[in-house]
Automatic annotation (TrEMBL):
Its cofactor is Zn(2+). Zn(2+) binds at H120, H257, H261. It is a multi-pass membrane protein. Ca(2+) binds at D58, W59, E61, N63, E72. Keywords: Calcium, Hydrolase, Lipid metabolism, Membrane, Metal-binding, Signal, Transmembrane, Transmembrane helix, Zinc. Hydrolyzes the sphingolipid ceramide into sphingosine and free fatty acid. This is Alkaline ceramidase. Residues 1-23 form the signal peptide. The keyword Signal applies. GO terms for biological process: ceramide biosynthetic process; ceramide catabolic process. Its EC number is 3.5.1.-. Belongs to the alkaline ceramidase family.
């Protein structure tokens, strides 16, 4: 618990001190960016409340069309889907007393949504930092969850190893914060996030192949999880490659970047639920090993220890029958 609270304090410190202070100091140098990435040959020159734009990228949606107070209306509104799903997971996590790591992951999910809404609503340099940096922080937390999926030792028993992982994650987050707030590398950031997401998917599939995780209910969630990411990526790509055609030829722009947000939100939701499911089975499997260490080994049946309920088509872990014990929790 203490290590998780420490991570949260560091992330909050990073967001509200390094990002705000550094970005505020560099806003003047970004007041007229010359290397802004656009997706149309004719630049969008609409003026609104947050003009001039100081971000290094301007997405396909036309600026200040719906209201002068929101630069990209649909991209901004769709970002709140991440906040809603993240808040539901966080509240359910508090109620069911899940491990702190999953609460942090849900909070990161919420921060990504808020940052995305801020970015698309303002198209400012600070908004871009509020969007992109929480994505990196969330992936660091997610990687910690994946690599500690089957770990049960307390911190005091493996202090050196745990400290190395925590220090590396914190250092990586701070380093990326400092560098990225000074120079918003569009392509480098996108490639960086792509590798982090792809690596996490490979790791999650590897964890699923372990016998005590290998059940149909998790397999179904994983298939939909990957399918949603592919759908989101297709929307993201088409929105960029066919931007000018959709804005000029057709009067109806499908706002595919907004759909990228929605598909991405459901994708992240399923990922966290899948992580919770695997972690619960890891804990139950460990308890089963301890219980049967001095008696004839009884086969572990993961289907008996995982209960999933669905609300409005979304899966959630049912902890009413399978409560995690304090002895097997790991910080």
């Amino acid at each position: 618990m203490r290590s998780s609270i420490f991570i949260l304090h560091v992330l909050v410190y990073t967001i509200f001190l390094h990002v705000v202070v550094d970005a505020r100091a560099t806003v003047a140098s970004h007041s007229h960016p010359s290397n802004v990435k656009h997706f149309e040959s004719n630049l969008d020159t609409n003026i609104g409340y947050w003009s001039p734009s100081t971000s290094s990228i301007d997405w396909c949606e036309r600026n200040y069309v719906v209201t002068q107070y929101i630069a990209e209306f649909w991209n901004c509104i769709s970002s709140f889907s991440m906040c809603i799903l993240g808040a539901i997971l966080f509240i359910r996590g508090l109620y069911n007393n899940v491990e702190t790591r999953f609460l942090l992951s849900s909070l990161g999910f919420i921060l990504v949504g808020l940052g995305s809404a801020y970015f698309h609503g303002t198209l400012t340099h600070l908004g871009q930092m509020a969007d992109e940096l929480p994505m990196v922080y969330s992936m660091i937390i997610w990687w910690f969850i994946l690599y500690r999926m089957n770990e049960f030792k307390q911190i005091k028993n493996k202090l050196f190893v745990i400290d190395i992982l925590l220090v590396f994650g914190i250092f990586y987050g701070l380093l990326w914060t400092y560098v990225h707030s000074l120079q918003t590398f569009v392509l480098i950031f996108q490639a960086h996030m792509g590798l982090m997401v792809l690596g996490a998917i490979i790791k999650l599939i590897y964890l699923y192949r372990q016998p005590y995780h290998h059940i149909y209910r998790i397999k179904y969630i994983l298939i939909v999880y990957v399918g949603l990411l592919i759908s989101a990526f297709v929307c993201w790509t088409i929105d960029q490659q066919l931007c000018e055609r959709m804005n000029n030829i057709s009067r109806f722009n499908p706002q595919l970047h907004a759909w990228w947000h929605v598909f991405g939100a459901f994708h992240c939701h399923l990922g966290i639920v899948c992580g919770e499911a695997m972690r619960l089975l890891s804990i139950k499997h460990r308890q089963h090993q301890i219980k049967n260490s001095r008696s004839p080994q009884q086969p572990f049946k993961p289907d008996d220890h995982l209960h999933i309920v669905y609300y409005l088509g979304l899966p959630y872990i049912d902890y009413s029958k399978e409560k995690q014990t304090n002895e097997t929790k790991v910080q």
